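Worked example 3 (structure in, sequence out).
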């Protein structure tokens, strides 16, 4: 192992004394209580600033919430006024609503009453289609006898239809027409 030795620097020129020059010597001669008091004061100022900032932020939040509550209250008041005006306007249409309700009631009753009626609009095209060529229908008479045969209990023939009794009958259709033959 070899060691190298660095050459010694030459001594610089002697420093000349300058009476106005500040010496880089510092010493803290303050007592420790004074230093801690200063730190405590800075800490109290910082904590006071944080508390003051929190108070300001809380006040801003309160003002913002209060203004939004006021806006929502105004919206509610407007909606209630609009609802009241629409309810007053609705009373103008009460007779129409009543008539529509009565119409629906009548339609329901008609469906019940006409449940056993002959549906002519369906029967006539079927009869015309079933008629042989050259046959012209003059009159068609139909009647439904739902429940009539069971209450009569006679079991006799209906009109002049052979093999059909009142227990089996649903209705009767009488067709009058002309044919060339």
């Amino acid at each position: 192992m070899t060691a190298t030795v660095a050459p010694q620097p030459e001594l610089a020129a002697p420093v000349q004394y300058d009476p106005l020059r500040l010496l880089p010597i510092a010493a803290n001669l303050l007592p420790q209580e004074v230093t801690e008091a200063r730190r405590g004061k800075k800490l109290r100022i910082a904590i006071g600033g944080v508390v003051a900032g929190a108070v300001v932020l809380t006040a801003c939040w309160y003002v913002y919430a209060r203004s939004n509550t006021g806006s929502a209250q105004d919206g509610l008041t407007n909606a209630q006024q609009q609802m009241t005006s629409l309810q007053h306007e609705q009373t103008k249409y009460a007779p129409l609503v009543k008539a529509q309700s009565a119409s629906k009631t009548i339609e329901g009753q008609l469906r019940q009453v006409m449940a056993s009626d002959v549906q002519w609009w369906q029967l006539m095209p079927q009869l015309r289609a079933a008629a042989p060529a050259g046959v012209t229908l003059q009159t068609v008479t139909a009647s439904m006898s739902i429940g009539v045969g069971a209450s009569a209990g006679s079991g006799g023939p209906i009109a002049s239809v052979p093999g059909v009794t009142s227990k089996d009958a649903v209705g009767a259709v009488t067709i009058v027409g002309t044919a060339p033959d």
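Notes: The chain is about 55% helix and 10% strand. The CA atoms of residues 149 and 167 lie 5 Å apart.
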